[in-house]
Amino acid sequence: MPKFLRSLFAQVLLALAAGVLIGLFWPEGALKLKPLGDGFIKLIKMIIPVLVFCVVVHGIAGAGDLRRVGRVGVKALVYFEVVTTIALGIGLLMAFVFQPGAGMNVDPKTLDAKAMAGYADTASKLTGGGAAEFLMKLIPSNVIDAFAKGDVLQVLVFAVLFGCALSMLGARGRVISGFIDDTSQVLFKMMGLIIKLAPLGVLGAIAFTVGKYGIGSLKQLGMLVVLFYASVAVFVVVVLGSIMRLSGLSLFKLLRYLREELAVVFATTSSDSVLPQVMAKLRHMGVRDSTVGLVIPTGYSFNLDAFSIYITLAALFIAQATNTPVSTADLLTILAISLVTSKGAHGVPGSAIVVLAATLQAMPVIPAIGLVLVLSVDWFMGIARAVGNLIGNCVATVVVAAWEGDIDRARAKAVLDGEFSDRLEAGDTAPAAPAASAAPGNAGSAAAAT
User: Fold this and answer.
1) Half-sphere exposure (CA, 13 Å, Cβ side) for 423?
2) How high is the mean pLDDT of the chain?
3) Is 434 inside a domain boundary?
């Protein structure tokens, strides 16, 4: 077998092509392949909570300096808010300039409210209680419940507290820390085995989609979808590209390094499906364990860049389609509300529509029933949302690590330049992160163990 065909990336591409053909020529059979995609994602989600716990706890306990961990957390949140605001602004700007909903002249009274009933109820629960209620939801009612539900943010809160307490124990905590690290290695071994099934998951997901919606659904998505893809591309290339350049690394080399994960996310429309593999690859680049463990899971809820573009773009699209006048004050209100509602997206069923409904409910000037117009193309927009969100979180991790001095720059450049293998075998783990004693900004000189 040629070397290229042995790579996961090539196998995923072949699965994509096969899925399209099966969906096109055998739609009845394609619909029956849906469990392949669903099962693959469930296998990945099965290990995510425990893996996040192990990586975060071991990273914090091994950091040796809780103040450093605190700085990483604060810097990550500051970065998330700044970049998310830029993403929201791009969504508003693109909708305002290109007017994707203009001329549709839809009467909100003619739209079917039944299609939105379930989403509206969930949206009310999401926004009910405001910021205080949202913060309370971050605290699990009990630890077992957080792991059982797979709530990554709740697991993260417990993991940070556990890691800090373990660090404070000093030598007494080394046995537990070692056990947790060994457990994470077992989980990465499991991840390596599961990720080999990615081509089957991709085949099932794309075959089902083409079989259900038809091949035309892949090319005739409409002005809104095209504009959304263009907006995400502009954000990734211009905004994230500039941020990476300021950090001394290349965005396009990072995308090439993560090409297998991006291909899987493209087909499954779920960034959860590659979370363990992405964490392993960022560690392999030379990013400190604790930084990867803190930034990536937190970013899945607080740094949804492409999702933020979607929220503002879709809201203004609905206003234009229903001939609802929107003032400058209304635009600023949409921006402010979206900064809050977008943070509750991860883990909510039908999250895109739910959070958009929550945004519109908090701002009644735009008829929420207009969401029915977006439902038909939401899946296609979900592809760019998932891919854009993943890229944004990977860039955030690299940037925060560079900001704090938690990345071995020499190794990162070597990995991105292809001087190290970018394929992780089952259970392959990262080299040692830069030493905790390295001064911020000088991590590039620290030699990473291989």
Assistant:
1) 11
2) 77
3) no
* Residue 433, domain member (yes or no): no
Structural domain contains residue 7: yes
Q: How far is CA 186 from the centre of its chain?
A: 24
pLDDT digits (tens, 9 = 90+) for 381-394: 888 888 999 999 99
Supply the DSSP symbol for 407: B
Bridge partners, residue 434, by sequence: none
- 56 Cβ contact list (under 8 Å, min separation 6): 156, 159, 160, 163, 290, 293, 294, 297
- Cβ–Cβ under 8 Å, residues 100 and 320: yes
Answer whether residue 431 is part of any domain. no
287 beta partners: 407
CA-derived radius of gyration, the chain: 22
Q: Note the pLDDT of residue 245.
A: 94
> What pLDDT digit, counting tens, does each position of 76-100 carry?
888 988 998 999 899 989 988 888 8
Contacts of 141 (CB under 8 A, 6+ apart): none
Cα separation, 353 vs 314, in Å, equals 10
